[in-house]
Amino acid sequence: KIGTFNITGINSITKRQHMAEWLKEEKYDIMMFQETKRNTSDVEKGDAWGKYITFYSISIDPKIKETEEKKREDKLPKGKGKGKAKAPPPWEAPDFEHRGVGIAVHRKGMKYLKEVRPINGRVMYLTLNAQDNNLNLISTYAPTAQATPEQKDEY
Description:
About 20% of the residues lie in helices and about 30% in strands.
């Protein structure tokens, strides 16, 4: 059973646990997520996800992420006293992912997994061995109506 879900953020461990429970109850083998808002392209397994392995794709340039993290570290208070100016809220930072896509695969399906390809924060796909052919599944998060024509063209 395969599905798709606009998760509107998956950074909370509690939300990931609830999602894993729901996937198990509904007997999903693969779930494709949109709007994960994750700030790292990575693979997550065990713990919150239970029997699911979850792959994430984001749009943030690693160099921008590194620069922004350094700026935040420099603004942290040092020693006693008030410290330096506060960093902007995370959702205003250039390295905050407003999009993000992901794909959760149940452990039993991993033997069919041939490839996972993160493209950017709007598109990723996985390829499964399906008898004599490959099956490609694409998780995509299209721009909303409020997006600029340039953003829509880029998509």
